[in-house]
Fold these 2 entries.
Entry 1:
Amino acid sequence: MKVGLVGNQNSGKTTLFNYLTGMNAKIGNWPGVTIEKKTGIIKGTEHEITDLPGIYSLSPYSIEEDISRKYVFEEKPDVIINIVDATSLERSLYLTTGLMELDCKVLVALNMADLLEKKGIQIDIKKLEEKLGTKVFKISALKETGIDELIKEIDKKEDLTRAKIFDNNIEEAISSISNKMSDFHKRFIAVKLLEMDSRFYDKNKKEFDKVREELEKNYDTDLEEVIATERYDFIEKTKKDCAIEKQNIITISDKLDKIFLNKWIAFPIFVIVMFLVYYLSVGVVGASTVDWVANNIDSFGEWVGTSLETLETSEWLNSLVVDGIIAGVGAVLGFIPQLIILFLCISLLETTGYMSRIALLFDKLFRKLGMSGKSLIPFIVGSGCSVPGIMGTRIIENQDEREMTSILVPFIPCSAKLPIISLFAGYFFKENSGIASASLYFFAIIVIIISAFILSRTKFKHVSSSYISELPEYKVPSIKYVAKDVFDKVIAFIKRAGSIILICSIVIWFLLSFSFKMEYGVDIEESMLASIGKMVSWIFYPILGQNNWGATVSAIQGLVAKEQVVSSMAVIAGLAEDVEEGSEIFAQGTPFAEITAPAAYAFMVFNLFSAPCFGAIGAMKRELGSTKRMFKAVLFQTGLAWILATAVYQIGSRFNMANIIVISIIAIVVISVIISKIKRKKDGCSSCPYCDSCK
Ligand code: GDP
Ligand code: MG
C-alpha cells in the first residue's frame, strides 16, 4: 500500500518516517527542514511510505506545499497518516479537516503524546474519533510508543463515516456536486468549487456554477468566507469537546525563553554564542591541530615519496603523487578537526531548539528589511552548505523574497569556506584567529542585512512574508542524532576532497609542472598556470596590493569548490623552488610570501562573498528560474565581493587597528540609523505581530 505522511511543519513526520523505515532523513526543529519528499518501506511490511514537507492546508502557497498537494492528488496514496502535534491541536486540525474530505483512508496520529502530561493537556481519543469520523492514535515518534497499533490499522477496513462539518445547505450542495463527478477526491474538489478556487476550476466544471449561485443566495458574504468560518467553528468545538487544558503551566522552555528571547540580552547572547562557535573551532581547535595534522600529512607524503623512489617510478610521477595529490587533498583534509567542532556546535544549536529562537529574534529585524524570519532558516542551513540552504528558500511563499534570499544565502560562510578562513586567520592573526574568523561571520551578517535592505527597495519590491509564530520546546539533544549528523557532514566533506579536490589537484599540478611549450619541471613562474594567472592578476591588485598570480588562480578555483582555494595554494607552494621541504604555504620563496595581514583579510572577504561553487550556482539557477538571472546574481555577488575586499584592503593598509575598529563602529551606527529611519511601505502589514513597533 502507498502511505503518505502529511502534517504541519515540525509535527514529527520525519522522526516517525525514520523510525518506520530505519532511514536517516534530516530532522530539525524548525519548519522547512524537509523540502523534498522521501520514500521508503515500512520495516516488516510491504507498505511504501512517503515523508512530505510540512503544510498547513492543501491550498498551496509555497513550493513545498505544492509538493505535498501534488503527492496527494497525483500519486493517489491509499492511506494518509495525518501527523498532528497533540500539544497544539487547534492549529493542526485545520489541515485535518481538509484531509478528511479526501477519498483515501485517513488515520490521525496525535504525536508528541509524551509531552501532553507535562503541558497539562488531556485528550479524549474516543470522542475525537467520533467527531472526526477517522481513527485516532496517540503516539510518540520520539519515544517510539503507540506506533504499532497505528501501522496495524493501515490494512484494516475503514469503519467510521467521516464527519460532516458544514451546515445542511452547504453539505447538500457538496453532495449534489460530488455525486455528478468522477474525479478522485470528489468531496474535496466540490468544496474547492464552492470556494471558487481557480486551481480546481476548469471548463468541465461550469455545470456546477448553478449550484453555487443557488447556495450563495442563502448567505450575506461570499461562500469562501462562510466555509472558512464553519470550518473554524467545527475545529473550535471539537477541541473544546475533546481536550482539556490546565491553564498557566509554565514549562522549562518558557523559563529559558525569558532569557534567550529577552529584549535586552537576546542579541548579545546570540553574538556570544556564534563567537564561541568560531572561537572554538578556528581559534582553539585550529591552533592546536593544524601543525600536528600538517606534519603528519607531510610525513606521509615523504614516506610515499621515498617508497616510490625505491620502486624507481619516474620523477614526474612521484611529483604528481606527492606534490599534487597528497599536498592538494591533504591540505583540505587537515581542517577536519575544526570542521568536526563547527558541525558539532551547529548541530547542538539546532537540536536544542536554540536556532529556532535565533530565527524568531531576527524576524523583527528582517521584516523591517523586507525579509521574514523564514528567510533566516536558509541562512542557518547555509552555514553547513549553501546548496541545501538555497533549496531551503522554498519554504518562503513570496517569490521576490525567495529569490532575494537565494542570492544572499551563499554569503554565509559555509563549511567549505572554513579552510580558507582558518588558513589565513591562523597564519596572519595568530592568537587572534578566533576573533578574526568570528568577525567575518558578523561581517557577512551585516552585508546580508544591507544587501537585503537595498535589494528589497530596488530589485525585489514585493517582499512581505509571513512571520514565524511557533517555537518548538527546548530539548536535550540526542547524542545518537548529533553524532550521526556530524559524521554524515564530515564524510560528505571527505568525499569532496577525494573527488573534486583530487581531480583539481591533478589538473593544477599539471598546469604548474609544464610550460606552454610542454617542458616538464620548469620553474613554476614559467608554468602554464603562472602565465594564465599573470594575465589576470591585475584584477586582484586592489585587493592584495600586489600582482599575485598564485592567489589569483586559487581564488578563481573557488568556483569549483571553495576548499580548492586552499588546496591550490598548497600545491603551488609545494612546487615553488627554494622552499624547504614541508614548510608552510606562506613561507619565503612561495608566491604567497609577500601577502600582508590586511591583504589576507581582504582575500578572505573576497572568497566569502564572491560567486559560490558551481553546485550552489546550479541551485541558485533552479530557484531563480533562468540562466540569465543566475548570471546576474553571480555578477552581483562577485562585484560586491570585489568592492568590499578592495575597501577592506585599502582601509586596512592605511589605518591601524584602533582606527579601523572606531571607523567600523561609526559605520555600523550610521547605517543602523539610516535603516531605522527609512520606512518601507508594507503591504499586508496588518498580519504582522509587531505592528505597534514598526509604525
Ligand atoms: P517534521 O517537520 O514534521 O518532519 O518534524 P521532525 O520529525 O523534523 O521533528 C520536529 C521536532 O520534533 C524534532 O526536534 C523532533 O525531535 C521532535 N519530535 C518529533 N516527534 C516527537 C515526539 O513524539 N515527542 C517529542 N517530545 N518530540 C518529538
Ligand atoms: Mg520533516
Note: The first strand starts at residue 2 and ends at 7.
Entry 2:
Amino acid sequence: MSARSCLTVVLAAGEGTRMRSSRPKVLHAIAGRPLVGHVLAAVQATGSRVAVVVGPNADAVTAAVTAQVPDAAVFVQAERRGTAHAVLAARAALEQGADDILVAFADTPLIRPETLAALRAPLAAGAAVSVLGFRPADPAGYGRLVTQGDDLVAIREEKDASADEKAIRLCNAGLMGISGAHALALLDRIDANNAKGEFYLTDVVELARKAGFRAVVTEAADDSEVLGVNTQAQLAEVGAVLQHRLRGALLDAGVTMAAPETVHLAFDTKIARDVTIEPYVVFGTGVSVAEGAVIRAFSHLEGATVGPGAIVGPYARLRPGAVLERDVHVGNFVEIKAATVEAGAKANHLTYIGDARIGAKANIGAGTITCNYDGILKHKTDIGAGAFIGSNSSLVAPVKIGDGAYVGSGSVITADVPADGLAVARGKQTVKEGWAARWRAVMAAKKKPRSAP
Ligand code: UD1
Ligand code: MG
C-alpha cells in the first residue's frame, strides 16, 4: 500500500435505461453482490477513502453504499451533465484533499485493486494525470488516447474525433488518477464545448498539459477488468467473467471440480482445499465449506457452514443458518434451515429440518419433518445425541427428543421424549385374517355381468 493518501470518487449516477429495469443499474448483482459493491470492495482493498456520486432518487444506492462502507461520503448529482460534472458533485470530499484522486465507474465492476494501485504510481512519480488505457477489439464509442512518445496528449471522445483519431486503437477505459494538488483547479476549468454539450472528465488531460503538467497512460493488464455494464446481456457477460475468476481461484487453492463451468459461486464463497464440488452446484452468499467435504451434484447452499468431511447432496438445500459439523451426511431432497447438525449425524433422504439442533450421531429417517411453524411463530426442535427418528415422523415444535431416544416410524410427536425412551404416536395396527378375499367376493357378486355384444 502506498504511503500517499487517496480519495476515490465512484460515479454511480447513471440512469441505466438500457437495463429496462426498475432497479438502479448499479444495484444489479453479479455473484451475489451489487455492481457498485464490487467496485467499493476493490477501492477499499487499496486503503483509499471513498466518495460515491449517485443520481437523484437513488436512496437505495446510498443505502447499499453506506451498508458496505459506513464512512463513504455520498453525493447527489441532481442533473446528469457529464463525467467531470459528476466528479465535481463530490467537491466537498475533493476539498478535504488527498495526494491522489482516483475516478472509477460503479458500472465497471471487475476492476482489481492492483490496477487501481498501478494507476496511482505515475502520480507518485510526478504526473498530474494518469489514465487507464486498453485496446478493445471494437473501439467504437470509446474515447481515443492520443499519445506522443510516453506522454498522453489528449483524450478524444468518439463524437469529437477526426478520422485519424478514430483510427487509434488505444482507448480510454474510463478510470483516471489525478494529482490531488491540482485536481480541483483542473476540473473547474472544464467546459461543455463539445459535440455532446457535456462536461467531459477527459478534458483534464489537455488542461493539465496546458498548465505544464504531465499526463500518462497505464495499460490494463487484462481487458476484462474494464468491461462495463449497460444492458442485461452485458450484466450476464460480466457475471460470467467473474464466475470464471472465482472458480479459477478455488482450483488454484486445491478445490476439486470436475465441471467448474457448471458451479455458480458467490463473491464470498469460502471453500477449503480437498473439497470436492460435483457439477451443477449453486452457492448463494455466506457459505463456507471445510476441508474434505463433498458437495454432490445439484445442491443449493446459502448462508450455510459445512464442516470437515461432511457430505451434502445430491439435490440438497442448505438455507441460511444451516451448520453442519464434522462428517455429517445430508442426502437427496433434504432441506436444512437455521439448524445445527452435530458431528456424524445423518439425514439422508427427503427431510425438512428447520430451527433445530440435531445431536451428534443422531439418525434422521426418510421423510422426517420438523413442524417448526404454527402460522404465527417459529419453534425449536431439539434432538439429542444418538437419537433415532423413524421414517416419516413429524416432530411438532417446540419439542425435545432426549439423547439416545427412539421415535417409531410415522409418529406425530407432540410431547418431549425422555433420553433412551421410545415414543410411538400413530394409529395401532389391526389385522383381520382373510378379510381381503371376502371383500373381493362380495364386490364381484355386486358387479353387473357385461351384456353380450
Ligand atoms: C466515458 C469516457 C470515455 C471512455 C468511456 C469508457 C468521458 C467524457 N468519456 O464515456 O472516454 O472511453 O467512458 O467506458 O468521460 N456518469 C455520471 N454522471 C454523468 C455522466 C456519467 O455519474 O453526468 C457516470 C455513468 O453512470 C458511468 C460513467 O460515469 O458510470 C461513464 O459515463 P458514460 O456516459 O458511460 O460515459 P461514456 O460516454 O461511456
Ligand atoms: Mg459508458
Note: Residues 228 surround magnesium ion (ligand 2) (CB under 6 Å).
